[in-house]
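Worked example 2:
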Amino acid sequence: MILENSVRKRILVAIVAAITVMAFALSSSIPLVSLLMEKRGYGNDLIGLMGALPALSFLFSSPFIPPLANRIGSGVLLWTALIGCAASILLLALTEHIVIWFGLRFLIGLFMAILFLISETWLNQIAEEKTRGRTVALYITFMTTGFAAGPLLINTVGADNPSAFYYASGIVLAGGSLFFLSGGRYPNLSGHSSFSIPKFFRIAPLISAAALYVAFFDGSIMTLLPVYGVKVGMQAEVSVLMTSVLLSGNILLQLPIGWAADKFGRKPVIMICALIGLVGACTLPWFITLEYLLWPILVIWGGAIVGSYTLSLVLMGQEFKGPELVTANAAAGVLWGLGSLIGPAAAGYSMEVYEPHGMPITFIIASAAFVLISFFDLGKGRKSAVKL
């Protein structure tokens, strides 16, 4: 996408600002559903199933987004998803019927999948190659900040107050209005890709593995780390802080990782991130009992792992263009949904079988597999360079 520098910056501001505000709204409404269900007497099984619906939406809807965007246009699809997301959140406040809530949560996940696929494709289309790492890192940093700050709305309005859904719905629309800064220059998602989503997994194993790996981490570690802390003897109040510290690493380290990727190469840096993820998983049972080491290590560990996803988006924009980039983003959405589903299930089952250290063992296996894929891909790239 050839754009003047001023237009490029304006679109970048629009994408980053809009996604940050919407992430804030979404991350406030999602836990509120669980809290209200618990208050109304629903069991943990139903609450857990409700929590899995956004991941199912990503998994099943992502393959259909590219042809839909190709048919009706990215601008129309973007605004349809924005209005649909805001309306679905609003309707959560207007009914308490559990079946309707299930449907609305699935729709919210569907509209989220559309918003993120279009935004990330758009971002990669306008990014300049020499600064692509920093551009994507900026996007991930602000989006993570929005997700981290979202629960503050619940604390302000009240955990038992459905009116928070009204605020969240309005915030989604307010965030979406920032897309007007683009001046109607929406991304071009037309055309037909030369490969399908299943074929993408074969031709881009590193990008695919990174999306699956980080979604696995997000679903398992971020969900069960506080539980693991309690099981090894940590106070509940302190164990909950570990998730916040991990998120702070996600926020603080993405721009340095993006800068390093632009300067030293994307694949070597993703290899380093993979190794840090493995070392962190292997040493978690040891450093979780050493508070003077725990907090700085969690910052580095969480930031490096999420950095793998940041760099997978960078590689995606570097290696794929046009309709192929759209298909690549859709494939990442499928993998994100899959990882978000299997991560908590695998880690939770492992903790039942081998308490308390089943969760880190599960993540050691996932991290080791990602390191092997990263190492193989890096070696393959070097061999190709030597041949050239």
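Residues 382-388 have pLDDT under 50 and may be disordered. The CA atoms of residues 137 and 254 lie 5 Å apart.
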